[in-house]
Amino acid sequence: MKIIDLITKETKSLSFEVFPPKPGTQFESVRTAVEEIARLKPLFMSVTYGAGGGTSNYTLDIAKGIKEKYGVPTLAHLTCVSSSKDTVRRKIAEIKAAGLQNVMALRGDIPPEMESSDRSGWDYKYAIDLIAELKENEPDLCIGCACYPEVHPESINQREDIRYLKEKVDAGCDFITTQMFFDNNLLYNFLYKIRESGITVPVIPGIMPITNANQVDRAVKLSGSFMPQRFKSLVDKFGTDPAAMKQAGIAYATDQIIDLYANGITNVHVYSMNKPDVAEKIQSNLSDILGK
Ligand code: FAD
Question: Which residue from 110, 104, 235, 125 is spatially nearest to 178, judged by alpha carbons?
């Protein structure tokens, strides 16, 4: 099922993100976690793709497994910047052969060793290169792309960032998923600006439940997200008590999602990070709202 056909303006839903095993992690433990999340029957599940190889080999296996065993539509992530055209084309052929209908088309982070190389020789410089290729060769795939309510770290300013986002959409993106954010007002402000720029495709907000204090630094470094004082106080107070921090982090994420639903958003993507207990708790907190 294509994600663009699943998102409606009427029905509230959740989708969950999982990632393939990191090098040195048992595939089985990841498979078990992923399957527990699939049993929650989210609208769809996305499976990330490790830029620069490594765990990316498992992305398709996991996405295919979820779809076939649990009937949950899946979104396979694919990055391009550190790959050759041959590798990307092979991956696209594998996606098609696996019967998957949804691809999250990403540039990926630029590996440090490529930072200073001559970019004119790169097969892919930006996500739009991958989107255009997908659209030209596989027009029946549903394509998602990423956006950044608080501006991508490499961007000069938000206007430029939104201009390039519009180009990605015009090149054939069917929907957009956001980077994590911890202050919903930033998302509402961003939505206003992108709608004003002429972007009309569905935008799926991404919510990251922070369930332990160690995650905070990593999340901020990765996303550059603003931490509201309300969130900082929570980490200050409960950060040294793992059970309390987990409960507070889930409650904060739940609260963000309720506010999004209350303001007209229907699908929310949860960065569930292979944690079925977290995904389950958030879904059960919203059971009456979701009708589940
Ligand atoms: P782009 O859209 O190419 O943008 C990158 C930067 O270049 C931005 O600053 C943009 O403004 C600028 N830009 C875009 N087009 C142009 C242009 N034509 N000319 C000049 N500048 C331009 N990473 C992974 O490795 N694996 C994953 O599975 C993964 N999943 C993600 C899912 C989501 C929802 C999000 C938000 C991010 C994800 N990432 C993932 C991280 C992502 O790969 C990085 O944030 C990466 O740095 C940018 O990817 P992009 O597709 O947004 O790039």
Answer: 104
Atom of ligand 1 nearest to the CA of 127: 3
Residues paired with residue 74 on neighbouring β-strands, in sequence order? 45
> How confident is the model over 235-284, as pLDDT tens digits?
999 999 999 999 999 999 999 999 999 999 999 999 999 999 999 999 99
How far apart are the C-alpha atoms of 103 and 96, rounded to whole Å? 10
Instruction: Indicate whether residue 166 lines ligand 1 (CB < 6 A).
Output: no
* Residue with CA at minimum distance from ligand 1 atom 11: 161
Residue 126 beta carbon below 6 angstroms from any ligand 1 atom:
yes
Mind listing the pLDDT tens digit for each residue in 165-182?
Answer: 999 999 999 999 999 999
For residue 244, give the 3-state DSSP assignment.
helix
The single residue of 10, 17, 35, 136 carrying the catalytic annotation is: 17
* Residue of minimum CA distance from atom 21 in ligand 1: 164
Would you tell me how many other CB atoms lie within 10 Å of the CB of residue 222? 14
Q: How far apart are CA 183 and CA 171, in angstroms?
A: 30
CB of 184 closer than 6 angstroms to any ligand 1 atom = no
Cα separation, 21 vs 114, in Å, equals 25
Q: How far is CA 41 from CA 37, 53, 100, in A?
A: 8, 29, 17
Indicate if ligand 1 lies below 6 Å from the C-beta of 79: yes
Strand, coil or helix: 50: coil
Which residue type sits at 89?
R
Q: Is the pTM of this model over 0.90?
A: yes
Are 166 and 199 contacting, i.e. CB atoms less than 8 angstroms apart?
yes
99 CA to centre of ligand 1 in angstroms: 25
Q: Is 196 a catalytic residue?
A: no
Any atom of ligand 1 within 6 Å of the Cβ of 146: yes
Largest separation between any pair of C-alpha atoms in the chain: 54
Closest CA to 219 of 204, 235, 230, 201: 235
